[in-house]
Amino acid sequence: MSTKSPGQQSLEIDWLTPQTREIILLAQQEAEKTGTPAVQLEHLLLGVLSEGKSLVAKQLQSCTLDMATLRAHIDAVYANNFYFKEDNPPFSQAAEECVQNAIAMITYYLTRYRPSARVAANHLVLSVISHPGIQRLQMAHPTQIATLRLQITADMEPNFLRHSENLLHPPPAREVPKPPTWKRANTNVRVHCPSCQRPIQANWKYCTYCGHHRTKVCPNCSAPSPAVADARFCIECGHHLDP
């Protein structure tokens, strides 16, 4: 039975326990029964309940997330997506992401300490209830989902939980501030030389036509004269300024 979605790679089933593989096959069968075009996240939970032998299946039932509740939710949410039943429906992007996230939990952490570790049903369900695509079910049954999460994670190792939390809920990317963009001053502003009255650019210190120094300076100490009208003496040395 294919677990390949259009345009996506097949699931790495070698990382799944035989029980988890059976759950995935049962999830496809549940999608066939409901006539949805692809295996959704809720179908994975139905697959866990259909298999029924895992501890997390009993935890789902104890949280009143039984098959009747999940099927009613699927009917309400995916009512407009029903179509003629087709064998082996592909996995939706969200469902495939959940399986891949569960595999990532195992390959990154557990293989360092337990080389034979594989994705079990509880890893798959934890990945499902942590996915943003399950938000509608979580809004309809918030207490049950929260209780289920506590029951699943109660026996997990703290380091594994920290890694799983970072994987399933990565921190938002920090925005790198953009460097300020400095606008170059407009150097093409035209003024007139006070000596020859020809048009020159405002940033010129000397007139290119007559050599006039546009800023009046003291002939004794070369200090610039104050920008006031009728300045007659240098503010630095007191020398008399030419008019």
UniProtKB/TrEMBL annotation:
- The Clp R domain extends over 16-102
**Limits of the DZANK-type domain:** 193-238
Q: Spell out the protein name for this chain.
A: Clp R domain-containing protein
